[in-house]
Amino acid sequence: MKRNKAIAILLCVLFLLIGVTYVDFYGVNPAGDFSAADIKLGLDLAGGVSITYQVVGDEAPDATDMSDTISKLQQRVLNYSTEAIVYQEGTDRINIEIPGVNDADAILQELGRPGALYFIAETDAQGNANYSGQLVQEADGSYDTQYTLNKTLEELQADGSVILTGTDVTDAQAGSQRDSVTGNSQYVVSLTLSEAGTQAFADATDKAYAAGETIAIYYDGKFVSVPRVSAHITDGHAIITGENTFEEAEHLASTIRIGGLKLELEELHSKVVGAQLGVDAIQTSLLAGAIGLAIVALFMIAVYRVPGVASVIGLLSYVALVIFLLNGFDMTLTLSGVAGIILSIGMAVDANVIIFARIREELAAGKTVRNAIQLGFEKAFSAILDGNLTTLIAAAVLLLLGPGSVKGFAQTLALGIVLSMFTALVVTRYVLYAFYGLGIKNVKCYGVGKALKTLPILSKKKWFFGISAAVILAGFVVMGVFKANTGDALNYSLDFKGGTAVTVPFDHAMTLEEANAQVVPKIEQITGSAVQVQTVQDSNEVIFKMDALDVEKREALNQMFADDFGIAGKDVLSETISSTISDEMKSDTVIAVAVALLGMLLYIRIRFTDIRFGVSSIVALAHDVLVVLAFYAAARVSVSNTFVACILTIVGYSINATIVIFDRVRENMGTMSKKDDLEEVVDRSVTQTLSRSIFTSLTTFVMVAVLYVLGVTSIKDFALPLMVGIVCGAYSSVCLAGSIWYLLRVKFQPKKEKA
User: Fold this and answer.
1) Same domain (yes/no): 106, 122
2) Residue 405: other Cβ atoms inside 10 A
3) pLDDT tens across 491-541, in order?
């Protein structure tokens, strides 16, 4: 590479890095738009809107209806954020929390009142008009349904003019179809009705079609659509036309779906709540990330010299691009998302370590520096591709099938994986070539690999299997003991089992930090449980969430607030709340993870042409998950909504490490002769990739360890098991995966080898 070209490449990379970093800090205009400050943060990091609905009616709602309503509301609010949560409060209330927004009125206006949808005939049995008005075309070309009711809803229901209610609609979806007359594409909403609704609608459309009348859709006190009936509909499937854009059709479909809930709800109150973790959580996370990144950068330079400098430039580009694209894709960042970024930073370093190790091997084989760089990237490509694609498959499946909190993790993980591959294979590569073009050609600047004595990993496999089995068995024993003594095998948090929410009006506006310092210790002393805190904007109220309280503890809590803070017991509101992670979310997560594992297994089978590699990888993953579960049980670490992110992070990390080793096994098998021993090939492959396994584990561990040292309690509960998982993932990849594959290979030999 010529010197001028090398300078041009370096300048381009540096301009890219500086430009993106500038936007991250200062935005694209004087107002600071598109800067890192504009990234949407979840409830745990920034708070949002909290809306409480109450079931309309004097009778207590059925538990099944409440569960169904919560499930459908959860699907509805995902339009605002994948991190939005819905949970039950008391016996007849439903609470919705939507992160990243602070205008409760706007959300209420869009969300409307669930379960208040009616289909109304244009005329009653005597031919009297039930509503009057017209469609008015707005300046933008859209139509406004400016109609008014001529009767009350009660009168309409009494005389049979209400054809259907929302519960008669089982589904509503936006779509498009060809107009049978003009042939043009038009946006529509397709409705599917229940069995009872089908018959009622058939009778109503027969009458309306014959008279050329309309059927109005009336929701939450206003008309949302007044379509003219153009056919006698008898099959329970109706099409609403007239929407100008897909967004209008989707909004109408969404309105009909939420209006079709079994229970009718009315707003009880709404408020803007503060972050659950507070400002300190964000600041300490940023500080921890900066310190961890600095340590990793120094490590890479110290170990790999000039290539290390190139990797640091690539890593800084990666971080800047991640922040930039979090804004670009309008993602909501939560503690789970931080997990995805941490994992992808580890994988970004991992790709560089694999490449640099290959370069050193080529230099040791006598290649020139330029040829070594070229061959290093070429030979490392398959391991990087396979390792990242297997994790990307898992992220894609979780994004499609997982519940909200898992989708947030999957989004940031997928983004990180793609960017890590780009920065490692493109940015680092061209920077390294540029350094060479500038005259840095001395072999000592790149380091020469040293041949390591092959480690006898497989000969120790019985010890490794025994240790792993003992740890996993001990974990099951501990979980069994706690299950018998406490009723819970793991230390489940409010997210999994619900509890009590206590709303306290103090005599002054209290910050989250003050509440954690002055109030939480007193509550924990009385209740013996962990406490989540949320402040309420423009209010002196603070919400404390904890494990379910009996009457005695509630009275003790009220007495404490009276004695220590002068708050009368009647002013302290205590409500039982359900878990924010529903049974449906749990089952969706399990299904998503199962499909992701199957997808990874199939990919490994196709790429490695040997199903044993895939089976061995999955067994190693199961080992890591079980060991981390054992740690959760023994250390009584709180199992919260970050638990799923932690487990998925470990799965992604471990599969990547295992694939790198298996890629080397596949390569070495391609060059082995009949005299070579398969056990020796596996041991040599593990030994050749050992530095990669150690260095990648070390750099990722450092990132998480700094987060643990500096983080608040909730972050510590996330970081600690993650550190255990990183160590466990490295152990299973080095000590178990190859041994499992070897045993399967010997036990179930390919047909050509048997012959």
Assistant:
1) no
2) 26
3) 888 878 888 989 999 988 888 888 888 999 999 999 888 788 888 888 889
pTM of the entire predicted model: 0.75
Cβ proximity of 450 and 348 under 8 Å: no
Give how far Cα 292 sits from Cα of 499, 700, 710, Å: 36, 9, 11
User: By the 8 A CB rule, do 79 and 407 touch?
Assistant: no
State the Cα–Cα distance between residues 310 and 433, nearest whole angstrom.
9
CATH number of the domain within which 538 lies: 3.30.70.3400
In this structure, the chain runs to a length of: 755
Which of 577, 607, 636 marks a domain boundary?
A: 577
Please identify, among 243, 260, 277, the residue that sits at the C-terminal boundary of a domain. Answer: 260
Sequence-distant (≥ 6) Cβ neighbours of residue 207 within 8 angstroms = 121, 213
| pLDDT score for 755 | 43
Q: Is residue 651 a contact partner of residue 339, using CB atoms and an 8 Å limit?
A: no
Q: Are residues 468 and 608 in the same domain?
A: yes
Q: Is the pLDDT of residue 322 over 50?
A: yes
My answer on whether 105 and 131 are in the same domain is: no
Q: Which of 75, 50, 62 is nearest to 260 (CA)?
A: 75
Residues 723 and 591 in one domain: yes
What's the angle, vertex CA 435, arms to CA 433 and CA 439, rounded to 5? 110
* pLDDT tens-place string over residues 72-97: 788 778 777 777 888 888 888 888 88
Burial readout 29-63 (b: 16 or more C-beta within 10 A, e: otherwise)? eeeeebbbeebbbbbbbbbbbbbbbbbeeeeebee
Please check whether residues 214 and 227 belong to one and the same domain. Answer: yes
**Angstrom distance (rounded) from CA 77 to CA 128:** 39
Least confident window among 130-144, 225-239, 581-595, 615-629? 130-144
